[in-house]
Specification:
The protein is an alpha/beta fold. The chain is built from 17 helices and 12 strands. The protein has helices at about 5-15, 20-30, 40-50, 55-65, 95-105, 125, 140-150, 160-170, 180-195, 215-230, 255-260, 270-285, 300-305, 310-320, 325-330, 355-365, 405-420; strands spanning about 80-85, 110-115, 150-155, 200-205, 235-240, 250, 340-345, 350-355, 380-385, 390-395, 400-405, 420-425. Strands 6-9-11-7 form a 4-stranded antiparallel sheet, with helices on both faces. The protein has a 3-stranded parallel sheet with strand order 1-4-5, sandwiched between helices. Helix 4 (about 55-65) packs across helix 9 and helix 5 (about 95-105) crosses helix 12 (about 270-285). The N and C termini lie far apart (about 65 Å). The structure holds uracil (URA). Uracil (URA) binds near residues 87, 182, 186, 187 and 210.
């Protein structure tokens, strides 16, 4: 058999040829072991970015990355492990509500989540707004918690798909993040290594997402569903809007508050609906619901949000993981910013855009996210948007509430948030954005 070397593999991809499973595995194993330097891996990522990957190559890359570290086996404690993953968004606190909802329907959930990335928030940062809540859970305790409690939310260990951790950091600084096969294999490798049998993917499209258009998001979703088929996992992908924040709150404690309100039967209607749909599809993959339109499971999901059942399960999870339950029962005890002030509208009109990315960046600048890897986040700060695309606003009404540390931070946020809005004289979104023609 021909000996392999990394230069030949890079050149083959550069020339648009298909790599074999052996070549991909060789490259990933040797990169993870430190035998292939970053400059070669960067060249390879760029070749993949420019030339793409076939379905077979993407599956091989996914499995090579999944198997580059520990593969969690949940079959001793769960008949069917169902997981969810969001491709990253602004105001996306869905996991906080969906996990308890799924567990409340008798399907145990053992989930690993990450921290915020750039202007997109991370579930662990949000949950750590609750004093004492720990997501640092070793694999054996992870299994015990789900067996005993039916729900566990842990941080991803460094040993889970380490090849993805290394490649992701490299892609971040070499302009190769937004490659569909690289994103698809990155997401799927972590879910497979985490032991999922069924995976619901929330693929975001819009200004606040990696995929700017619904067509691109659909392509990414198709690749991930194809990987699932190829490796024997059930996968459902939902393509959802990320042009404006999901719900109203963007930050950490402000998002926990909104999630808890939603589990008290309140909360923004778009966010509530998002949680019901995701939880419904997870239950369907796990065999606890049958209908593709979720009509058989929807009534019980709605009831469990309204009658406090989901909140009870959430509280149980917080308690089991060392969190202060008093902060769940009394939201006034969650971290509060010293300065909470509205941004008032100076004009009347309809909103054509409430830009998710700009609002995410505003929350980041307030301190809710990290400018550098490993930095602490400020749990108290953030933004609550009172307006949605298409809504009518009168002059003098509040557009946003800013939760800030200082006057300067508030002033900066005020200007950023006004810059996130586009106005229209008509309700709703326009049907057409313009006409280009060869004719005069
Ligand atoms: N999320 C991931 O986990 N990986 C990517 O490459 C992009 C988003």
């Amino acid at each position: 058999m021909e000996r392999m070397n990394s230069v030949t593999i890079i050149a083959k991809k550069r020339d648009g040829e298909e790599l074999s499973e052996r070549e991909i595995r060789y490259f990933i194993e040797n990169y993870t072991a430190g035998n292939i330097p970053d400059y070669q891996a960067a060249a390879w990522c760029m070749a993949v970015f420019l030339k793409g990957m076939s379905r077979e190559e993407t599956i091989a890359l996914t499995m090579a990355m999944a198997e580059s570290g520990e593969m969690i086996n949940l079959s001793e404690v769960l008949d069917f492990a169902v997981d969810k993953h969001s491709s990253g968004g602004v105001g996306d606190k869905t996991t906080l509500v969906v996990l308890p909802l799924v567990a409340a329907n008798g399907v145990p959930v053992a989930k690993m989540s990450g921290r915020g990335l750039a202007y997109t928030g991370g579930t662990l940062d949000k949950m750590e707004s609750i004093r004492g809540f720990s997501s640092d859970i070793p694999p054996e305790r992870f299994k015990t918690l789900v067996a005993e409690n039916g729900i566990v939310l842990a941080g991803q260990t460094n040993d889970l798909a380490p090849a993805d951790g290394l490649l992701y950091a490299l892609r971040d600084v070499t302009g190769t993040v937004s490659s569909k096969p690289l994103i698809a294999s990155s997401i799927m490798s972590k879910k497979i290594a985490g032991g999922a049998n069924g995976i619901v993917l929330d693929v975001k499209a819009g200004s606040g997402a990696f995929m700017r258009t619904a067509d691109d998001a659909r392509d990414l979703a198709k690749i991930m569903v194809g990987i699932g088929e190829g490796v024997g996992r059930k996968v459902t992908a939902i393509i959802s809007d990320m042009n404006q924040p999901l719900g109203r709150a963007v930050g950490n404690a402000v998002e926990v508050r909104e999630a808890i309100h939603t589990m008290r039967g309140e909360g923004p209607p778009d966010f509530r609906e998002h949680c019901i749909v995701l939880a419904g599809h997870m239950l369907r993959l796990a065999g606890a619901a049958n209908k593709a339109d979720l009509s058989d499971i929807r009534p019980s999901l709605e009831a469990q949000l309204d009658d406090g059942t989901a909140l009870e399960v959430f509280t149980r999870m917080v308690k089991a993981q060392g969190g202060d339950v008093a902060q769940v029962e009394d939201l006034g005890k969650l971290p509060q910013a010293p300065l909470i002030r509205d941004v008032i509208s100076e004009r009347s009109g309809y909103l054509r855009q409430v830009d998710a990315k700009r609002i995410g960046l505003c929350a980041l600048d307030l301190g809710a996210g990290r400018a550098k890897k490993g930095e602490p986040v400020d749990h108290a700060v953030g933004v609550v948007a009172h307006v949605k695309v298409g809504e009518k606003v009168e002059a003098g009404e509040p557009l946003f509430t800013v939760h800030a540390r200082t006057e300067d931070d508030y002033t900066h946020a005020h200007n950023q948030l006004l810059g996130a809005l586009e106005w229209s004289d008509r309700p709703g979104l326009p049907l057409f954005y313009g006409v280009l023609s060869t004719e005069a």
